[in-house]
Amino acid sequence: MLLEGKKALIFGVANNRSIAYGISSAFRREGARLAFSYMGDAIKKRVEPISEELGGDFTFQCDVSGDEQIGRAAELVKEKWGSVDVLVHSVAFAPKEDLQGRFLDTTREGFRTAMEISAFSLTALCRAFEPLFNPGGSVICMTYYGSQKRIPNYNVMGVAKAALESSVRYLASDLGEKGVRINAISAGPIKTLSASGISDFRVILDYIETHTPLRRNVTIEEVGNVALFLASDLSSSVTGDIIYADSGFQTVGM
Ligand code: NAD
Ligand code: 0WE
């Protein structure tokens, strides 16, 4: 098993359609020990049964918008496990109003929120968990092609994902000194809870079916398998990188 005995912290399971759920299932299948964070009580009720289903060791609260909660989470994980091998960041948020209409109309508050929760939280988590990482550790985060090219309505999230991807490159150098790797997976669109509020998401999914080399959308199981590669020693030379799990969308110009 590729992750036999490795301890993996998962941030961002909301339900069994979450990308983080696909990742956790793949990790479980390959022998990892799992622990799950939840943002607040509403999500806790959904995460606990999933943790039971996947044999998780424990769950813990962590709203990534605050250093205190992140610090407390790191202390708890230190008490429970002593060390970690894998950290999965699968968290993003921007106010709904900022994911429609003109990017030009993005508010200061919307910009700040998107950047803080969707981009800075990666650096905050890496810093808080740095002392707990075993050599050979791996950090994985989720991104989207809207960071590279304008995708209608992705707006401020595209800017936040560009910051996230750049953060991966800078963090790779700092964590590399400790033998820890960090990479992002750029996934194609998937109908998760986060996507359910997006108008015309069906149009985006249909576009992928006609305009990508594979002519189909990707699944959370497929993203889970890419994450499995990045979490395992199979990817021991890969860091600071963005891997596309997007049916080849990113490779096509026309
Ligand atoms: P999801 O709604 O299942 O997961 C998003 C998670 O973010 C939820 O668990 C939510 O609780 C968490 N979250 C939001 N604000 C938080 C906060 N302040 N503190 C802690 N947690 C918080 O949706 P998903 O599609 O699985 O999204 C996971 C990741 O994948 C995100 O980074 C998203 O940008 C990225 N992504 C999604 C798609 C897609 O089409 N669904 C494609 C590419 C990348
Ligand atoms: O990163 C994402 C979605 C992230 C997201 C989703 C929401 C919806 C509910 C962040 N914040 C919020 N805030 C809410 O209130 N994706 C990659 C999925 C996604 O979202 C889009 C997309 C795609 C793809 C928005 C517009 C266009 C395409």
Structure description:
The chain has 254 residues and is of the alpha/beta class. It contains eight helices and seven strands, in the order βαβαβαβαβαβαααβ. Helix 1 crosses helix 8, helix 3 packs parallel to helix 4 (108-129) and helix 4 (108-129) packs parallel to helix 5 (155-176). The N and C termini lie far apart (40 Å). The protein binds nicotinamide-adenine-dinucleotide and ligand 0WE. Residues 12-14, 18-20, 39, 43, 63-65, 90-93, 117, 142-144, 187, 189-190, 192-195 line the site of nicotinamide-adenine-dinucleotide. The site of ligand 0WE has 16 residues, from helix 6.
Tally the beta strands: 7
Pairing-aware structural class of the strands and helices?
A: alpha/beta
Classify the beta-strand content into a percent band: 15-25%
Ligand inventory reads: nicotinamide-adenine-dinucleotide, ligand 0WE
Radius of gyration: 17 Å
Between the first and last Cα atoms, what is the distance in angstroms?
A: 40 Å
Mean of all residue-level pLDDT scores:
98
Q: Quick one: overall form?
A: globular
Reconstruct the topology from this structure.
Elements: E1 7-11, H1 19-29, E2 33-38, H2 41-53, E3 58-61, H3 67-81, E4 84-89, H4 108-129, E5 133-143, H5 155-176, E6 181-187, H6 193-196, H7 201-211, H8 220-231, E7 242-245
Parallel strand pairs: 1-2, 1-4, 2-3, 4-5, 5-6, 6-7
Helix pairs in contact: 1-8, 3-4, 4-5
Bound molecules: nicotinamide-adenine-dinucleotide and ligand 0WE.
Nicotinamide-adenine-dinucleotide (NAD) binds next to helix 1, strand 5 and helix 6.
